[in-house]
Fold these 3 entries.
Entry 1:
Amino acid sequence: MEELVSIVMPTHNRESMLTRAVESVLNQTYSNWELLIVDDASNDNTQQVVEDFISKDARIKYYKLERNQGACVARNKGITESNGDYITFLDSDDEYMADKVTLQVNCFKSSGVENLGVVSCGRIDFRDGIKYNEWVPNLKGNILQDLLLKNRIGAGTPFLMIKRSVIKDHSIQFDPNMPAGQDWDFLTQVCQYTNFDVVSKPLVKVHHHSGERVYNPERAVLAFGRQYEKYRHLLLKEAKVHDTFVLKMAVQSYVYGYNERALNLLAQNIIHKDFKVALWQIYMHMATERKSFLAKATFKFLKRATSL
């Protein structure tokens, strides 16, 4: 018998988009799945939309939280209620390609990666229905260092399929206290214990739309700092990895206008202050704002020269 795959879908006030996401699950070529829709206290017609689907397909389950607590709590609820051998996720405004689940389960069975616990895939991005980006990750094996170096991996939850045993054996959850980058945090927890492979084709359509939540620089800066404190014990195992993480954290702070914080990070947290750090310190002292053409051009040059 095919392994059971649990698909966890958090949602909040997205009745107009939910149908597309659910139908993409119903259209999967893989049939042994359960869809756990966790309603984060919606006040629209979400419940009725879901109940209409449940009346037609018993594989769909619905849980409603009493108060709005955010996507992390909703995903954790879905994980707790799930029964699958594998767990994957889908945001309620996105959609799967029809062979998404099949290809990822097959990858688990045929991959040559030892201790495989998570399989990712590529993505196609749409803005108001118009395709503008397509990307497939190219890493496999032990990717923990790549995560700590903040290399591009494709950590978004809709792309990941994870062995249930990895999550359960190590009590892995989404961190509701992480202000941003919760998907990176979740995958970093997972990849401390297991290895990574990828289906080398886009299997998820990611829909960006007018009215979606605006990116919050303050939360992003705060999240980088919390990630540093949470994983400092791992970062300190290799000074180069630690210093690269801190340098990227400082540059992010500078970009979002936290100049003093950026300079303090470079002065106080770097273990080995090499030429890269010195260049960024000089630049941040001189270009307090990236408004002039010269400041912007120098910033781009520095990012390339220091491999950030």
Note: The domain at 5-208 is CATH 3.90.550.10 (Spore Coat Polysaccharide Biosynthesis Protein SpsA; Chain A).
Entry 2:
Amino acid sequence: MEVGVDFTVLRYFVAAADGGSVTAGAQAVHVSQPSVSRQIQALERELRLTLFSRQGGRLQLTAAGRAFLPMARDLLAREEKARRAAGYLASGAMQDIAITTLGTTLTDVIAPFLVTFTPEDPMPSVRTVGLDRLFDAPSSTDLYIAAAAPPPWLESRPIAELPVFACVRADHPLSGRGAVELADLLDHELLVLDKDFPARRALDSAAELIRSAPRRTHRFFSPEVAMAVAAAGRGIAVVTDDPRFGLEALRILTPEGPLRIHLCGAWDPHHHARGQLESLCRRLETFCIDRYGEDVSPRH
């Protein structure tokens, strides 16, 4: 037996059950008593169930009615949730936002940015992936935060040009300089990340432009571990993360300027909340400028 869901009738049923009479239920939903009574009787016929027994002018839920009542409440709650979600969709807003990003971007950019969210912002969820798989899940992502050029079918906006740092101990010969020329840096023992990390790709591309390469490298799959080893005096960690373990961050200077990665936001141009997604990217740009300085602005 197939039963169509009439949420109005379910609302009458729940109101009568809570009020203990059709009259009380009718008053709660602001409908006449005869109308509520007819609707409940029609519901019983449709369900082929007796939901109430009538004793002394009051309604008593039958066993079937007691079993059906929580189901009716659940359906009404789901309907209300669907209506709210539809309202958000119609207004071009989101209740929830799914972000896909890189692990290193999550630690130093996305997570601190989420601290600034208010109850008026969508509830965020964040998935981290490798650079080569960043754009592989369009159906489950609202916003990409990428240190890579997005594919042409996505709309995008630049967010920041974040520096790549050479992190050294206070007693390292390069300490205190504030910056180091790329050619000089390549002569040192470097603690580099795997090629799946934007910092490593930026370093390799810059070295190729000056037709050089690091003298000696050790590969790591975690910026934190690379910096920990640098703090132990085993080399210079090349990362985009904020320095840890008492390390000093040096800017890396190339013939084209400081070595940077280009962070951008990207989204489906047909997304119902594309305006809100672009607004979040503008907020993230401002956050990065406040955190790292005006020179990280993509319009600097």
Note: The CA atoms of residues 77 and 100 lie 30 Å apart.
Entry 3:
Amino acid sequence: MSEPTARLRVPPHGSSVAATRSFVAETLSAHGLSDLADDATLAVAELVTNAVLHARTEVEVVVDVEPTTVRVTVRDDDRTLPVLRDFGSEATTGRGLAIVQALAADVGALTTRRGKAVWFTLDRVPTQPGSPEDRTGLPTVPSPPAPRRSVAVLEDLPVALWQEARRHEEAALRELVLVRGDHLPETVDAWAWFSDATTAHADLDAAVEHALTAARPGADGDAPATLRVEVPVTDDLARRTAQLLSTLDEAEALAAAGTMLMGPARPELVALRTWRCDEVVTQAAGGAATPWPGAAPRGTDRPR
């Protein structure tokens, strides 16, 4: 096996995304392949961002320039393979891996002795793009649900509004961690605070997905307008959910101030996420469930 053309190791820090983009662009330029730089840097940025946000370990980027292809591999020390998720054509997040697959000639992931490697290739000579079935691809099997204990009930959750809120919230969390990470020293674990918010968000969304699947049997079933969702209240979900709301409020304030690339959320989305989080925290403490009352008009209190 030939030696890699170039490799770079970076810390789990927001600034590492820009560093790896520059590294890949400079490596390709040195080999007369600047025409591949746009696709390669966009794809590697998506993979490194995922590693920084979720693995939170040192990341290694390896570039192999071969006679007909360029192969870029991103390695980290977390053995959890990435999952390709379908958020639809209007999603503002969750499309990173899909973007990589669209740009690359081939893409895949595998576990290693220390963690995992996610890679993509670009053709040096343009060829007819293969169909998705011809590619190695990425796993699409969701993680198994967490064991159930007590539950918090979200009554009359509006499905379409939740889908829009979910996309906006994941985009906000993703951008906020990079904004905050760029202003912290590399010796600081920039993502420790982020873990509570993201795991709470994943737990709440998994409960909605489970209820949606149960209410819509079969792949062609129409989604209901509203759902009754049971959220398993495991471990310290209430505390993490409170952190999620605080983190999303911070992102909203930065977006309103123009600090974030994304714009602020519509009032209905803010109202829905506040109600979802408040319901979990309140019911975990023994309070009663309150059905979704609808979005509060501007200038009124948040629904409780």
Note: Residues 150-284 form one domain.
